[in-house]
Design brief:
Blueprint (H helix, E strand, L loop, with lengths): L10 E2 L5 E2 L18 H25 L5 H23 L7 H25 L5 H8 L2 H12 L7 H18 L10 H24 L7 H23 L8 H29 L1 H4 L6 H13 L6 H16 L13
Antiparallel strand pairs: 1-2
């Protein structure tokens, strides 16, 4: 996700099963997993968790050599290239309706261009660990928005309790009792705004792009393409063309796009089809854990006690806000 994910960058749809940003809701029941592939989907689940968890580290490394808008443009460009290649191989047809393209343009801004750029700017002044934890607040924002935006998602006591618990966790992460001492409020606010942008985008997608007749892969690929166009128009207005291409930041941007946006969307797409969205969405709760570990071990970022404790409270609250959906256990079908 940064999360997301894809499309990147991760949290659940308001009041529904979580989906990575940029991946429109799957339509209809998911087909049962193929026999004998239980281990295979578990490996892909772990791979997806690692890819999205490391995305925040890649953003931090990318911004060491490039402006935030350049990082986002590269991310979308390489992500679009991966999905475009897959669509070409599968001979997928692009949407023909101008109305659909118009809605995808808005979705691209809310789910890709805006949050990806905000996270990139945020990580100029905040650790990648904090950005990853802020990303985990998406389901909490989604639950709050569903109170007014989605009439079919009425809150229960359990979910409202989860909402309150989750935001208590946010205050713990930020060290509210210390007056947010030592915290860059601007960067943190941008990261939280990025996580808010995802559920706003999901609500918009649910209201406008359901039943278009196009596959999830086509809608996602088209959305990433439009996000790339948006950044290609904006980036030259705020940055100059780079005079050199440092190795590590360049590799980070390529990996962020090709893996963290392109490949990750394909993995999520396959998992939703094979084991259903309820199982696939569990990756959301691993992302901040991996992002925190990666930032501390590989980037040497400092970690106070309140950060992991608050993150656990955030994840517990996010889990409570999700509807309990009974799904067959994939292992029983193997």
């Amino acid at each position: 996700m940064t999360h997301e994910p894809p499309s990147t960058a991760p949290g659940p749809c308001p009041g529904r099963s979580a989906r990575r940003p940029g991946l429109p809701p799957a339509r209809g029941p998911a087909p049962p997993p193929a026999r004998g592939r239980f281990t295979d989907w578990r490996l892909r689940f772990v791979a997806l968790s690692l890819i999205w968890g490391f995305s925040f580290l890649l953003i931090k490394v990318g911004t060491d050599g490039y402006a935030p808008f350049q990082v986002t443009l590269g991310r979308l460009l390489f992500g679009t290239a991966v999905l475009g290649a897959v669509m070409a191989v599968r001979r997928e047809r692009l949407p023909r309706s101008a109305r659909t393209w118009g809605h995808l343009l808005v979705a691209a801004f809310l789910l890709n261009a805006l949050p990806f750029s905000l996270f990139a700017y945020a990580e100029l002044t905040i650790p990648s660990t904090l950005a990853g934890i802020c990303n985990a607040t998406s389901p909490l924002w989604g639950m709050a928005l569903s109170l007014v935006a989605l009439s079919e998602d009425r809150p229960t006591r359990r979910r409202v309790a989860g909402l309150g618990l989750g935001f208590l966790g946010v205050l713990t992460v930020l060290g509210a009792w210390q007056g947010f001492s030592g915290l860059d409020l601007g960067g943190t606010a941008m990261a939280l705004l990025a996580s808010l942008s995802y559920p706003v985008g999901w609500i918009y997608v649910r209201r406008t792009l359901a039943g278009t007749g196009s596959s999830t892969l086509v809608l996602t690929g088209s959305q990433l393409f439009l996000g790339t166009v948006q950044l290609a128009l904006v980036t030259p207005l705020f940055t100059s063309f780079p005079t050199h291409f440092p190795l590590m930041p360049t590799l980070a941007v390529v990996a962020l796009g090709a893996l963290g946006t392109g490949l990750a969307v394909l993995l999520q797409y396959g998992l939703v089809q094979e084991v259903g969205p309820t199982t696939a969405q569990m990756v959301t709760y691993l992302i901040p854990v991996i992002a925190t570990a990666a930032g501390v071990v590989l980037l040497g970022e400092r970690l106070s006690w309140n950060t992991p404790v608050g993150a656990l409270v955030v994840l517990a609250g996010a889990a409570l806000t999700q509807k309990a959906v009974r799904t067959p256990r994939p292992v029983s079908r193997g």
